Amino acid sequence: MRDGGSDAVALSVEGLTRRFGGLVAVDNVSFELPTKRLNAIIGPNGAGKTTLFNLISGEIRADAGRVRVHGQDISGLKPHQIVRRGVSRTLQIKSVFSGLTVAENVRTAVMAHEGLASPFRPAASYRAVSVRVDDLVAQVGLTPHLNTRASALSYGDIALLEIALALANEPKLLLLDEPVCGMGPQETEQAVAKIREIAESVDVVLIEHDMEVVFAVADEIIVMAQGAILARGTPAEISSSPEVQEAYLGAPEEAD
Amino acid sequence: MTAAGISRAAVVVLLAALIAVPLVLPMFGSSFWIDIVAEILIWSLLAASVNLLLGYVGLLSFGQALYFGVGMYGAALSVIHWGVGFWGGLAVGVVAAMVMAAIAGSVAVRLTWHYFAIITVVFSLILYFAAMSAKPLTGGDDGISFSAQSVLTLGGTKFTLADQSVQYYTILLVVAFCYALFALVVRSPLGVRFMAVRENDRRAALVGINVYLTRYTAFVLAGALAGASGALFAFFGRYASASYMFYHVSGEAVVWAIVGGAGSLLGPLFGTGLLIIFREIISAVWEHYLFAVGAITVLVVMFAPRGLAGAWSDLLDVMTRGKPPANVPPSSPSAAPGLPKRAADTTSGG
After folding, report:
1. Domain boundary among A170, A189, A217
2. Taking CA atoms, what residue in B is nearest to A144?
3. ipTM of the predicted structure?
């Protein structure tokens, strides 16, 4: 928006609506996020944040509305088609291929991105893929665990592995659902540094409950409540908005 | 020697032993056992078909006998009506089974878990009853029979399946070819997709894999394996019968695959071998030998959930513990598979 033209809009959501029975989880939500920004979506439990992500990534179908990524309409596409159009995401409950090693996990994602599905040539013989696997694993700092089974990794390392999987398709837009949830202070610090680093080359939208993290990393914050957008602004604007404090951060005297 | 090296050597020994079967077994005066080994090889492909689905894409099918039966009838009918011979009949059987799997699979792989298991049973029951009632074509329970087919004519000499050794080596050749293809596929990028879907279908979709198409491909390939098994069995027995499409045949294949170890290439071959040899020995003296088969299955599931193949790889781990395999660091819990952990795994999984 600030640079003008649709190229400068990373994500555009228009009238997005999803009902579950009588509950309107996401209620006619519209917004545009500019590129080169680290955007965060916050809101109390049940505000519709994860549903919004599920709608964008195609895992659930919208009742109404459109989603565009860098001007490209992805509404109604299947999750794997949306991934192939450059939208990646991580899940609130970290989701990797637990029975496979770190290298095998990332190899799977890289091969899927390259569209490789030959039934005959050995997977290990693709040199270019192996190089990218090593690069991605190094990028998230998991090289020492290259041949460790994902199920044997620490929680923080699983989260990093999931980020590596999400980066394998060279995303234009990366959706992170509570990336530091369940992490210790040290792991959180590392993950935040990693997210900042990634956001320099990829447009990132994150959902986060940890306010300290959100205010530290986000350029701009969208506050959701009851399926709708309550407020939007810089961290400073959001933290000083009485409306937000009342709906989300609690009564003013409790806020820090 | 590394665990992988020992396993590779074991495969070579196995192949050598299988090649030696018609030469060695008659020395003990038991050419009967040559046919038993041939039968094990044939049925192991049906177990391999279950294994491809259960062990590699995570789908439990209780209906693979359907594709076995279609392969059987494809071979028998094309030999009887069109005179296509062994190789033609084998091809028709495999293709027919793949077509059947392509039709059933388009519905079945939309479902997972018990829904998938149930729909595979339903499909096989429908076709079983159809085949039973289409007596003029299929011969129903009695089946249809044909004569031993020729495999190869070499300089005026005809090699036919009537010769026990020719039949054995023909079966070994086809079965070995199927396993080689299986090995190739599961190591390929397609195999990588299979395992991604088995491990985590949601994440698989989120890295850009079409989960439905991947499961569908595996289902059709599994149909081909079951079809090859059925076609070979038709040539071996020189007949086809609708009774082989019944779901207890499917169930037996599931047991062979699980006892042998789903998710390993050759595990189901050993599961099939163990249980067929057991059947041949015990059924002669004890009519209710299936009780013992049930007991063996329960024991394997409880104490070696990854089957014979899992027990084998644990044994290799113990033998080569001095230098742990590169891909399993010493800190990994899977490097120290104690029995209590096993038991805990089983209970939490159930």
Report:
1. A170
2. B329
3. 0.90
